[in-house]
Amino acid sequence: MKNKRLHRLNKVLDLPDEVTSDVPKITNLGFSKMMIENYRAILEYQDFFIRIRTTIGIININGYELKMNEMTTDDILIEGKIDSIDFEAIED
Predict the structure, then answer these.
(1) Confidence at residue 68, expressed as pLDDT on a 0 to 100 scale
(2) How far is CA 66 from the centre of its chain?
(3) 55 Cβ partners below 8 Å, 6+ apart?
């Protein structure tokens, strides 16, 4: 019920759903940058592998020379040579 109201409000105000929800938004900028919005925690961080928890699952980023830049409590910018991304869904 609450989700339907938020979705309707977003539609009326012309806001994207990720603004008022906690669903992550992932933006890739080529193979060298990735912005993750609405993340929850950093589970593992190495220069070749990063694991990030979100409300819907875990994001695994594989590559070389990976760095976490411009971190806030909600957003994180990952830079480096990104080879692959995979997702682990959270089972209810």
Answers:
(1) 94
(2) 15
(3) 22, 23, 24, 38, 40
pLDDT tens across 26-74, in order? 999 999 999 999 999 999 999 999 999 999 999 999 999 999 988 998 8
Token look-up 């190495």 returns: 46
- Note whether 54 and 48 are within 8 A (CB): no
Whole-number Å distance between alpha carbons of 22 and 32: 25
Reduce the DSSP state of residue 13 to 3 states and report it: helix
Q: Which helix (H) or strand (E) holds 18?
A: helix 17-20
Angstrom distance (rounded) from CA 56 to CA 75: 16
Question: Which CATH fold topology does 22-89 show?
Answer: Immunoglobulin-like (2.60.40)
